[in-house]
Design goal:
Blueprint lengths: L14 E2 L5 E2 L7 E3 L2 E3 L2 H4 L3 E3 L126 E6 L4 H12 L2 E7 L6 H13 L4 E5 L5 H17 L6 E6 L20 H24 L8 E6 L11 H21 L5 E7 L13 H11 L8 H11 L11 E4 L8
Parallel strand pairs: 6-7, 6-9, 7-8, 9-10, 10-11, 11-12
Antiparallel strand pairs: 1-2, 3-4, 4-5
Helix pairs in contact: 2-3, 2-8, 4-5, 5-6
């Protein structure tokens, strides 16, 4: 078909390219220009129609500028939301939440620091920092340096500021009843007596002191009374059968008068009185004798069995009772002149295992407490004790010796009713000293 026969196209409107192919006068696609829409010849014959559908055909539209490629068309004005009715409680007239005015600051109270909004995210204006709260652009604010808090004063110290191995007190364990401490005037017995008194236990103390050291026992009893607990101390030989029966009868009378029979919660065996002599010596007369060996094992081991028979047989200790015996790693090691004491410690651990088995039906537990090397009067009697302490400091992961207070805290915790399933064991309280080679 020739150009003259095409509807809506005249011969003058036809142009040709270099190859002679006809070029249409209008583009194949629609475009908007000067307020009119140009249709392709296949659409409406090249007619120009108004691009304003809401206006009559005779009305003129304002011309729209042509946009360059990549340019953005101006955005329409956002639709306005209807205003919310005013007067609502806690509501802004525009529908937003009304922010209450700040309360006047009371004298003596610090101004609360407002929370900061997360960077890059929207946060309500009530969480924005006050003016001047953020650092200036390009300027970094230095963190304020704080002086290290001293341990034991001025509040709790930070974990990284505490010396290694320093104990931080936990909430106290509250107990009730009485505790019988054998060897209550020094060392572990003194520390456990005071710790049990702080935990709410009254104290029966058995000790053997002469006039020179009797004042220390009286001081301990006075401290227990100042803590609001009762202290009944007996200055007798704990290995004497007659004296043992007298003390047990006195304790029974005290508990019956208070209607507290069976209220003995804790029995601690911490008797340290024995012979430090070799089994074989030259001359042989310097070796340990039968009487000395029997006395050492009787005081430091067998007396635990006899005292347990007294308190259980008289009904002083009932279900929920706790029996502890102080042992040491020397019970399984060889040290110079430590043979009699080592045998006593080994026998003591054996007695604990047997008592734990026989007392289990009564609800009473028995455990050995193996403390680390502790600077006590008993240790100072061992030959070469300074070397023993120095080696223990190097071995201990915390770099220090065990203290009587470390052991006392452990015994108080083990006296809690919830530890009823722990019995017949040798419990190490040494800060890991025993496991380090």
């Amino acid at each position: 078909m020739s150009a003259a026969r095409r509807p809506g196209v005249t011969p003058a409107a036809i142009r040709r390219d270099r190859a002679g192919a006809p070029i249409p006068a209008f583009p194949a696609l629609d475009r908007v220009a000067d307020g009119f829409t140009h249709r392709s010849p296949g659409g409406r014959g090249g007619q120009r129609t108004s691009s304003c559908p809401t206006r009559p055909p005779s009305a003129r539209c304002s011309p729209r500028p042509l946009l360059a490629r990549g340019a953005e068309r101006p955005r329409a004005e956002p639709e306005r939301l209807p205003r919310a009715p005013a007067g609502g409680r806690g509501r802004h007239p525009a529908g937003r939440r009304r922010v209450a005015p700040p309360h006047p600051r009371r004298p003596g109270r610090a101004r609360p620091r407002p929370a900061r909004a997360q960077p890059g995210r929207h946060a309500p204006h009530r969480f924005l920092p006050r003016p001047g709260g953020l650092p200036r652009p390009g300027r970094r604010r230095r963190a304020r340096r704080r002086a290290p808090t001293p341990v034991g004063g001025g509040g709790a110290a930070r974990a990284h500021a505490r010396p290694r191995g320093t104990h931080v007190s936990s909430p106290p364990v509250t107990l009730g009843g009485w505790a019988l401490i054998l060897g209550a005037s020094s060392g572990f017995g003194e520390a456990v007596s005071l710790a049990c008194a702080r935990a709410g236990l009254n104290i029966f103390g058995v000790h053997l002191d002469r006039k020179a050291t009797l004042a220390n026992a009286e001081r301990i009893a006075g401290e227990i009374r100042r803590l609001g607990r009762e202290a009944r101390f007996f200055n007798v030989n704990a290995a004497d059968a007659e004296k043992r029966a007298e003390v047990a009868a006195e304790m029974q009378h005290t508990l019956e008068a208070r209607d507290e029979l069976g209220a003995l919660r804790v029995l601690l065996h911490s008797l340290a009185f024995g012979t430090l002599k070799p089994y074989i010596a030259d001359p042989m007369k310097e070796a340990v004798t039968q009487a000395q060996l029997d006395m050492t094992l009787d005081v430091m081991a067998h007396s635990l069995v006899y005292w347990t028979q007294e308190v259980v047989g008289r009904g002083l200790m009932a279900r929920g009772g706790r029996i502890f015996a102080m042992t040491s790693s020397g019970g399984a090691r060889v040290l110079p002149q430590y043979g009699p004491v080592s045998a006593a410690k080994a026998a003591l651990e054996s007695h604990i295992r047997q008592l734990a088995s026989e007392l289990a039906p009564r609800g009473i537990t028995a455990n050995s407490i193996r403390a680390g090397v502790t600077d006590t009067p008993a240790l100072q009697k061992i030959p070469g004790h300074e070397t023993i302490k120095e080696v223990a400091r190097r071995r201990n992961p915390s770099g220090r010796l065990t203290t009587p207070e470390d052991v006392a805290r452990a015994i108080v915790v083990l006296s809690h009713p919830d530890t009823y399933w722990i019995t017949g064991n040798v419990i190490g309280v040494d800060g890991g000293e025993e496991v380090v080679g």
